[in-house]
Amino acid sequence: GEAGDRLRLTDAPTARLEQEIARLNAAVPPLRSFVLPGGSPGAAHAHLARTVVRRAERAVVAAGPENPALRRYLNRLSDYLFVLARIASKQAGAEEHIWKA
Which residues of the chain have pLDDT under 50? Predict the structure, then answer.
């Protein structure tokens, strides 16, 4: 359309998300099991936002050929929201809910 490449997503925002994920991940213990949604109200909201982003990612894939940077961005955004949820739980003093078989 009229916007051309101005509205096309590039890899730069994805790279910024990856840097933020690495920075935030340093503040929480490494994962040894699956974390269930919850922990604190802020964490629950971040987990909910993550499910919406995952749904959008699936819709983009189902829509067919697209800008590959969009799929990468949505994937990293959902990872960012997961780490953000872990940070929110930690800051609220809430225990993470670990999945047990």
Answer: none
